Amino acid sequence: MKKIHWDAVLMPLVGVTLTLLAWQMISGRTVIRNLADGTVEEVRLGWVQDLPGPLQTWEKTRKYVVEPFAKREELDQGILRFTWYSLVIVAKGYAIALILGTPLGFLLGLSSTFSKMFDPIIQVLRPVSPLAWMPLGVVLFANSGKSANELAALFTIAVCAMWPTVLNTAVGVRAIPQDYLNVARVLKLSRTQTLLKIMIPATLPYMFTGYRLSLGIAWLVIVAVEMLTGRIGIGNFLWNEYNNGLYTSIVLCIVTIGLVGFSLDRAMSLLERRFKSIL
Amino acid sequence: MSFLVLQQVSKGFGPPEARREVLCGVDLSVKQGEIVAIVGYSGAGKSTLLHLVSGLLKPDAGFVTLGGRVIEGPGTDRGVVFQNYSLLPWMTVAENIRLAVDSVFPDWTEERRSEQVDRHIDLVNLTHARDRRPSELSGGMRQRVSVARALAMDPQILLLDEPLGALDALTRGTLQEEISRICRASGKTVVLITNDPDEGILMADRILPMSAGPGAILGPSFPVVLGPTRDRRALNQDPRFKALRAEVVAWLLGPGARPAVSVSRKLTLPDLEPEDLEIPRPLIGGRRRPRRRSEERRETVDLTP
Ligand SMILES: Nc1ncnc2c1ncn2[C@@H]1O[C@H](COP(=O)(O)OP(=O)(O)OP(=O)(O)O)[C@@H](O)[C@H]1O
Ligand SMILES: [Mg+2]
Question: pTM for this structure?
Fold first, then answer.
C-alpha cells in the first residue's frame, strides 16, 4: 500500500491559501459613496486599486468557469472552450516542430560538418521572440486566403518551439555510447537498421526532454500569436477582455493558462520518465 | 595451417606528439578449432588486440588475416563478446539475440530464425529470463546473453573479452565450466582474453601471456597438457596445473613485467612557483593565485642552513 504523504498535499494547499490571502489584501475593492448632492460615486480603494481580488474575480468570471464549454456568442464562450481552440492550434504547430526538429537534430548530431555549418545559425535564431516571428509569418502567408491567419500562427509556433527538440536530439545522438555503435558494427547492421534499432532508441530519452521543453514553448507562444492574429482562443479572449476593461477575466485567463501549461508539462515528464527508465 | 594469424602487429593511439604505443609487434597464430587464452595485465592492450581481430580497429603496422584473408573491417564471421557485455538495454534477451540472427541470416524463414534464438537462449540456460531486459538480469546472466548472441551468429571464430571479468570468484567458477563446455561443444575457434591465469589454463588449449604495456608483446605459448574435461576442484591439486600456472606467472612477473620498449618524451617542467606553506593563508580570499616563474621579476633563493 502506498503511504500518502500529507506534507505533499497539505503544504501546497497552505501555500495557495496564503497566496490568495495576500492577493486579497493587496487588491483593490469597489466602494460606493453617497455624495453631498445626493448622487452616488463608485471609487476603488486599496493598495493596488485596479487589481481585482480573488473574490471579485470569482464573482465576475463565474459564468466562464461553471459552464466551461458553453458557447453563447463568438466572443462569449466558456473558458475551457477557448482553451480547447488554443490547444488544437498548439497541437498542430507542435507536431510540425517535432517533425522538422527531430531529423534536424539527428543530422546535427551525426555530422560534425553539418553541425559546424548550421549550429551558429541555430544559436542566432533560437532566442528570437515569437512577437518577432509573427509578422514575418503573416507576410509569408498573406496571400493564402482564409487560412492565412492559421498558417502564420502555425509557422510562429513551429519556428519557436522547434529549437529545444533540435538541440536535445543532437546532444542525445552525440551521447550514444560507442559500445552500442560497436555492436551495430560487429553485427553488420545496415544503416537503416543501425538508425532504427540502435540510434533512435538510444536517443529517445534526450528527444523526450526536448519534446517536453518544446511543448512548454509552444504553449507560451500561442497567447502572443492569438493576440496578434485575432484567432479565437484563450489569448485572444484575454486581449479582448483587456480592451473591454474587464480585468477580472485577465486574471482568470492567466490562471487557466498557467494550469494548462502545468498539466501539459506534467504529462510530458511522465512520458519522459518512462523512456528514461529503459536506459 | 593456421586459421587466424597476426604478424608483427602494432597499434598505438593518440596524435603523433603524444602517442601511446599499445601493441608493439605482436605475433600470434591460432589453428582451426583451437581455444587460445591470452592472459595479461590490466591496461596492457588485450582488448585492443581483440578489436584488431574483430575489425573494429585497424593495425598501424603488420597484418591480421583470418582464413588467409586480410581483415578489412567487422564481419559476421567473428562473434564478439565485449568486455562490458554491450547488450542493448531497450531490448529483451530474446530481442538482443534476434537482432544478431536477423542481421546474419536475412534469408532464413521466420520459424528458423526464432528457433535459432530459442535454442541459443536455452544453451546458456536463460529460457526463464527470455523476455527480461538486461537491467533486470544479474551480471553473470548478462554475460551469458552476450555469449549466446555471439554463438547465435554461428561465427567461425569466437572472440571473448574477459567474459567473466566482472564476476565474483564463485560465480566465475561455474560460468567458466559452462562457457568452456559450450565452446568445446561448438567446436569453434576461440580467442579468450582474461586477466586470471587459472581461468586461462582451465578453459583453453593454449595460453599466451601478454607483457605489460606500453608496447606490449605476447610471450611464449604454453600448451595446456590437461584433458579437455577439467574439474576445477581436482585441478587445484594437479601438479601439471600447478607447474603450468607457475610458468605463466613467472613469465608475467619476470620478462613480461617490463615494457618491451621504452617511450621517451620531452618533459617540460611546469612554469609555476610552488606555494610557500610557511606563509599563513589569509582567512578571506583563500588560496593565493598560482604564480608563474616567468612573471616573477626577481627571485631570491635563501641558501643559509
Ligand atoms: N580508443 C583509444 N584511444 C586511446 N587510447 C586507448 C584507446 N583504447 C585503448 N587505449 C589505451 O590502450 C591501452 C590498452 O587498452 P586495452 O583496453 O586494450 O587494455 P586491456 O588489456 O583490455 O585492459 P583491461 O584488462 O583493463 O581490460 C590503455 O592504456 C588504454 O588507455
Ligand atoms: Mg580490456
Answer: 0.80
